[in-house]
DNA sequence: CGTCCAAACGCAAAAAGTTTGCTTTATGAG
DNA sequence: CTCATAAAGCAAACTTTTTGCGTTTGGACG
């Protein structure tokens, strides 16, 4: 029961995808942040440019595809004992990741993609992380905000700053957002 | 005392910029949402492609430039008598604008630009609008949230939804954000 | 297993887009 | 009015992208 993403996910197809992704990552870190071309990637991946064009359409979509993979949350945030602690811990790491050069780049690549579903995917990632922290807090017996409240109160401001005004995407601000969101809960 | 944006903003240069911008807008609404090329734009604008490349670098930057102009707030939001009313009124219009096809396109174009200063510009636009509404409310004697609170509580969630999950960028949600932001003020 | 269909790739030529060196135009200052 | 130079035009390289066609290779079915 393999996940049937594409009509034919078997051997070669998967190998090509892997090779191309690897090539992109290699070139991205090695050099050429700006000048990164499809023929170049094809060369290193050992494929023909036309293969890349046929599968991804253009460079932007390919980069977005690779970057989305990069941003995929691989492990659950650490357990610090409280929801506030977990959130701050996660935010700290996330901000560090996203304000780094490669992190920014990844975010930009995704935003540059015409395919809206990729952005929604980011949204789902964040939601599932928030949901995870919520449930953990609930089993501890903490009173927790709704998922919506967390998205609007924490994820949205953080993401907005990251995208539009990176200078204000700081840990201090993040803690403030957490604070506000959690305390607004108490006053109901 | 003309604004000295560029070394030589005089006649021809300005005319070319105007012609190119017009050509982009014309092509955008006329047809070809996707297939929109520099040589095509150059043709209609009556300029050489190389002129466009030298001034804007590439298609993405040109589109972003045109779109930023489109998003520039031209008039102050209507005065409804209360801050809540002004906000909702503005949000309603803004959401309508941004969920339309051309509006979405403009947003996407700006997000696709490599030049971060353009996004910051969007941020400043929003800030100045919020600040305008704040001051208007202050002269009325209303108690108003800080600019930061409005950006975090209203603009950020709205923008986040517009970008990542357009389906949830609704007027109902917007009113909720306004509500939450204004009422959190009272409980201090 | 062996056969067959079609998806995906390779190849190479053609088309389209982009860059660049040089020339010409025309703004803005003196 | 004259001059220096930013910006545009032009055309020839150059690079990337597209496309048609033949070949490979998963995966289904007998």
From TrEMBL, chains A, B:
Residue ranges of domain HTH tetR-type in the record: 14-74
Alphabetized Gene3D superfamilies for the sequence: Homeodomain-like, Tetracycline Repressor, domain 2
UniProt DNA-binding residue ranges: 37-56
Superkingdom assignment: Bacteria
Pfam families cross-referenced by the UniProt entry: TetR_C_11, TetR_N
Keywords: DNA-binding, Transcription, Transcription regulation
SUPFAM superfamilies to which the protein is assigned, alphabetical: Homeodomain-like, Tetracyclin repressor-like, C-terminal domain
Signal peptide: none
Protein name per Swiss-Prot or TrEMBL: TetR family transcriptional regulator
